[in-house]
Amino acid sequence: MANASPDWTTRLAAFDRRWLFLIMGFAIVLPLLRPCGIPVVPTPMVRAAYSQVEALKENDVVFLSLDLDPASTPELEPFYKAVMLHLKRKNVKIVIATTWYSAPPLVESWIRSGLETQLIPEGDKSYKGAKDRVYKKNVDYVYLGFREGKTATIANMGADLRKTFDGRANDGTLLDNIPFMSGIKALKDFKLSILISAGSPGAKEYVQYVQARYGLKMIASCTAVLLTDLAPYYQSGQLLGVVGGLVSAAEYEVLVGRNGSAIKGADVLNFGHMVVVLAIILGNIIYFVGRRARRASGRAVPQPKGAA
Amino acid sequence: MLKKTLPIIIGCLIGMYALVEFYVPHYHAKELMKEILDYAAILGAAAFVLGAINVFQVSWPKIRRREEDWQYKVVMLVAASAMLLAGVSWEALRGKDDAPVVQKTASATSALVIDTEPGVEVTVNGRALSPDYLKELGGDAQALTRGEAVTLAVPAGEYALGFSRRAIGYSAPSSTVVLAAGERAAVRAVPSMQWGKDGRVKTWLYDYVFAPCNSTMFALLAFFVVSAAFRAFRARNTEAALLLGSAIFILVGMAPFGRLISDSLPDIANWIIEIPSNSGRRAIMMGAAIGGIATGLRIILGLERSHLGEG
User: Fold this and answer.
1) Does the distance separating the beta carbons of A21 and B227 come in below 8 Å?
2) Does A284 contact B at CB distance below 8 Å?
3) Given this model, what pLDDT does residue A308 score?
4) ipTM for the whole complex
5) B44 close contact with A: CB closer than 8 A
6) What is the spatial distance between Cα B158 and Cα B175, in angstroms, rounded to a whole number?
7) CB within 8 A of B300, min separation 6: which ones?
8) Which of B45, B252, B256 is nearest residue A149 as measured by Cβ atoms?
9) By the CB < 8 Å criterion, does B200 face chain A?
10) CA distances to B83, B98, B171, B202, B206 from B199, in Å
11) What is the least distance, in Å, from the CA of B235 to any CA of chain A?
12) pTM of the predicted structure, to 2 decimals
């Protein structure tokens, strides 16, 4: 008789998971519509990344590797825009490349929206930093494009950046004709390398193949799942700062003084994380109450399937 | 000999050289290594071609035999072929040229006549031909938006003209016209749709098909994670309880609301990442590195031959 009608914990544990999807959907959409603005406090890893960019001087040349695809845009684009604003207002020259074959159209669109456009519109009262300006192609920045070869390309850039890209920018302009590229032969000639990575090859491979060998100064921004991959390199001093995921990007925005999409997205994370934590707690309560009830009634305790 | 021994000898020599080069500071050693890295990059690119051929070789027989999920393979092959065709620069193959056509005629006063299609942006000497600028040059401010030719009463001189569209993937014809006194130059240009890697079709497919599909796949993770959190994350034993506890501290501590609950929560989350997680990860990385070195040495010495098709 007891086996014929399952107890409430069994029924609850097996309820339609689409309800969970609906709750998660609300947790994502509602904060976007009604931001609650929970304050964001920068952590040491993000502060370290910020201070590396802050230490740059006018006309220093930095290398920016954008190793990503459209899927990682929501997590990585806010940091990209914040750091571009930071670099632009310091009047730093930027050299951009990518090692991901799916990245070039995305990178070109980011260049248009982040460098060739003013990130802070004139008269924006919420922004208190130095004035933003438009960067000009091959004058303030150069886009080298994509080269296939993954780690071999990274190693190549460490040895000879010009040869890796045949001495030309993506639009065919000779690097010799770009004045700020005159002293740049390899990655070691940059004052700082900024690596925005969504996976492999990316920041990890830059550290493994070129950082230690040439003693490069590097900071990285990555998706949240990659943070644990890169944290050991921050601890060892090989990465001088790490901005991991959307929350860290929001922290960077706070430091730069620009309220961007990461700060809005931080609210989504708050609610999303809350739903996941509640799901874990609720799932475990149901599991333990059910187990106790089944033990008390002498029924067999179901064996776990795919246990965490 | 050629199929087995030669690849082993090449692998051994290149592998040994890559190891030794680290410790040889001589200029020529570095230069040779650059060449080897170039070859590695070329081989990596060539692997893409082989990969594409392999996809066709594997998928086509399955489609022919109507095996399970054959319809998805058709979609994949059609999508791959569409991207491949969109990536070819057809106008370069045809030798098509859309440079501005300039026709000069004698006239009482010198003038530039600009003829193009509506929606095309025109620049004269680097400055966009806005209604204000058109007025300044004595032209009809609305002519270009109506798609009519506009006459500019300009003095003799050299004029750099540029034609472009706002959308990406169109050509941007440009020309420098030297206008003599008493000469009228009619310039006609229409930016044409481009094919190839920066062309309109590939850009459109990337922006409106690939990017949304790619983002959707990633976005679905949020829903699967919450489902898995409810159904599978159970504190069934001590290890699972520790894992769960860490996960909850990280989830709460890494989100800004963690600081609202307690100032210590973010510190606990950071401590978990910096101490236990880093220690574990470092141990895994070192183990994997030692494994990598061992495997690398076995390949270099020809002891490991699975990459040559041997068991």
Assistant:
1) yes
2) yes
3) 40
4) 0.83
5) yes
6) 10
7) B11, B12, B15, B16, B19
8) B45
9) no
10) 11, 15, 9, 6, 11
11) 7
12) 0.86
